[in-house]
């Protein structure tokens, strides 16, 4: 069974990992789909994974397990909703969005409600299997018990308390419990674990991190999987986080603040006060143990650690009975929403055979922000070569998490020299050479594969048109409309012009063409970054002009900068990009002025 493990948020890793384990054990093929925002936190980079919907189309899955609310309707496979939590009272938990063929529920409370919807809509099945994330709670208890004993000894205490609030701005207790958590740590000596959701307001994450730095028995947990913290803690403090139910199912007490559930089976405090006394009283006398037993029976009665196995088996049985659907029928508006989230399906997909292999090349220096994204983006190539100029950030550490990258570290002289060296390392004639901050769309990847493997006459080199992204927003004008660069070419028919050291120039022996689909250029995150990079180029360009014995004049300081601004802002329609267009045009002109200012300084410095 070909299976997609579909992750839109980081919490999906811990939910889907037990299913992955079953798939491995039973020799099924699988691929992780990771939303691009999750690349830095994805813990299984040695496994088969992608951020590309095109890769999922090519994978031709039989089943898609999704602990989220959406899944592309146009992907082949049974679309299986396995839920991302146990908080049935939260808005949207029982909403039918029509994206799923099969709902695998956690326990009787959920099964009964979804069976009502099944009778109403009659276009999906419901089967109760238990929830895979809880499997580990019944298989790794002893392992975590040893860790717990070590922690209690190290901190000379007898209890571990977990604070895990929700991130929802209207429901979170984080802004109100900072002083209460401080008092709890100082007055009891208990070890406090703080575990916040990825989407929590950064202001509160920073405040609680600072608290953990000030007080030794407060630990801020930054790992993405909360399982360890749940198993270590004796009591949980929260508000309306769905993780409350996971903790209750371990038969341990919970204290919440202003919980919105209509069926509260634990201690809930209606004001943000009295935490220390309530914690001590609950640990001394747990009055909600009987209610937890009933909750366990309704929410998750499965204690065998085999929920993931039941999910895989149930899905196989569903396929045996109903077959594998090629897509899910949706209304126009539902399709439009999916297209907005995941893009439209790639048409006329290249499926091989590959007649020509591709070498993908990247040069890097301190690209920790982009390295995961660009390496994942190039996985369709037959080899990936990275020439790094001895990065001092985490670029190399992140790069080594991939298992198919050829890394070469080499001192940086100039861009042309470094790129010429990288080109010489390519073992295949077809070369895809992109910058670390560039990404191929699915449509462009498909076009590259079709172009390289076509039986028709091929050009020596191909330009890629680029979409210019600034502060994560697209710049549509300001002279970027026709921005293009050589990115795909035949190694045997090109070489770099060694007289150009900054904006390297490719000399092409043969015909050049332009590909239809565009490359995305994530150029700069802010104006300061843009300005600093332009200054870096300015210095290199000034040295290039110095070598040619160029002499700056008033023309270079006044006319050229003014014309560059005019070219981008007026001719390039930068005014249509609003404030961003104005500032970018200004910085383009400033770059020209700074280039000749630097040249003037260098000439003066080199005078005898």
TrEMBL record:
Q: Which Gene3D superfamilies match?
A: 3.40.50.12580, Spore Coat Polysaccharide Biosynthesis Protein SpsA, Chain A
Where's the Glycosyltransferase 2-like domain? 359-496
Which InterPro entries is this protein grouped with? Glycerophosphate_synth, Glyco_trans_2-like, Nucleotide-diphossugar_trans, TagF_C
* Record GO cellular component, one term: membrane
Question: Does Transferase count among this protein's keywords?
Answer: yes
Q: Does the UniProt entry include the keyword Transcription regulation?
A: no
**GO molecular function terms noted in the UniProt entry:** CDP-glycerol glycerophosphotransferase activity
- Which superkingdom? Bacteria
Keyword vocabulary terms for this entry = Transferase
Instruction: Write out the similarity annotation.
Output: Belongs to the glycosyltransferase 2 family. WaaE/KdtX subfamily.
What protein am I looking at? CDP-glycerol glycerophosphotransferase, TagB/SpsB family
Q: Which organism is it from?
A: Cellulophaga baltica
């Amino acid at each position: 069974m070909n299976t997609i493990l579909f992750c839109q948020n980081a919490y999906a890793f811990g939910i889907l990992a037990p299913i992955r384990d079953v798939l491995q054990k039973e020799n099924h093929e699988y691929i992780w789909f990771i939303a691009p925002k999750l690349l830095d936190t994805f813990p299984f980079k040695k496994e088969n994974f992608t951020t590309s919907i095109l890769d999922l189309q090519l994978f031709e899955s039989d089943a898609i397990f999704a602990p989220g609310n959406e899944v592309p309707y146009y992907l082949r496979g049974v679309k299986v909703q396995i839920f991302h939590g146990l908080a049935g009272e939260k808005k949207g938990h029982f909403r039918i969005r029509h994206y799923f063929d099969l709902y695998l529920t956690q326990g009787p409370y959920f099964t009964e409600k979804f069976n009502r919807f099944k009778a109403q809509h009659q276009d999906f099945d419901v089967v109760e299997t238990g929830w895979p994330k809880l499997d580990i709670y019944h298989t790794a208890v002893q392992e975590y018990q040893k860790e717990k004993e070590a922690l209690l000894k190290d901190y000379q205490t007898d209890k571990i308390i977990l604070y895990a609030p929700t991130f929802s701005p209207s429901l979170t207790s984080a802004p109100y419990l900072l002083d209460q958590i401080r008092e709890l740590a100082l007055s009891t000596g208990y070890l406090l674990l703080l575990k916040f959701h990825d989407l929590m307001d950064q202001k509160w994450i920073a405040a609680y991190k600072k608290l953990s730095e000030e007080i030794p028995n407060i630990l801020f947990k930054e790992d993405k999987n909360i399982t360890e913290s749940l198993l270590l803690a004796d009591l949980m403090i929260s508000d309306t986080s769905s993780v409350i139910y996971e903790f209750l199912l371990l038969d341990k007490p919970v204290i919440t603040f202003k919980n919105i559930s209509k069926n509260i089976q634990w201690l809930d405090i209606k004001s943000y006060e009295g935490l220390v006394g309530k914690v001590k009283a609950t640990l001394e006398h747990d009055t909600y143990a009987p209610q937890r037993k009933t909750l366990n029976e309704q929410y998750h009665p499965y204690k065998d650690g085999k929920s993931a196995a039941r999910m895989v088996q149930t899905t196989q049985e569903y396929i045996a009975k109903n077959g594998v659907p090629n897509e899910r029928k949706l209304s126009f508006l539902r399709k439009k929403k999916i297209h907005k989230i995941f893009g439209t399906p790639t048409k006329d997909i290249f499926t091989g055979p590959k007649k020509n292999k591709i070498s993908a090349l990247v040069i890097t220096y301190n690209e920790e922000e982009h390295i995961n994204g660009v390496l994942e983006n190039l996985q369709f190539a037959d080899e990936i070569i990275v020439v790094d100029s001895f990065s001092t950030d985490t670029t190399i550490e992140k790069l080594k998490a991939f298992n198919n990258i050829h890394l070469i570290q080499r001192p940086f002289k100039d861009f042309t020299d470094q790129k010429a060296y990288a080109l010489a390392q390519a073992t295949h004639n077809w070369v895809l050479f992109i910058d670390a901050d560039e990404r191929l769309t699915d449509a462009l990847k498909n076009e590259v594969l079709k172009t390289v493997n076509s039986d028709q006459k091929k050009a020596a080199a191909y330009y890629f048109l680029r979409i210019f992204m600034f502060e994560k927003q697209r710049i549509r004008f300001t002279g970027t409309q026709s921005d293009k660069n050589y990115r795909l070419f035949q190694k045997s028919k090109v070489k770099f012009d060694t007289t150009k050291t900054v904006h390297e120039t490719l000399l092409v022996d043969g015909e050049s063409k332009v590909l239809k689909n565009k490359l995305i250029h994530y150029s700069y995150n802010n104006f300061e970054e843009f300005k600093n990079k332009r200054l870096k180029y300015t210095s290199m360009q000034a040295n290039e002009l110095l070598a040619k014995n160029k002499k700056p004049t008033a023309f270079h300081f006044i006319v050229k900068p003014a014309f560059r601004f005019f070219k981008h802002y007026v001719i390039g329609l930068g005014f249509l990009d609003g404030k961003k267009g104005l500032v970018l045009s200004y910085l383009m002109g400033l770059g020209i002025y700074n280039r000749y200012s630097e040249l003037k300084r260098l000439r003066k410095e080199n005078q005898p």
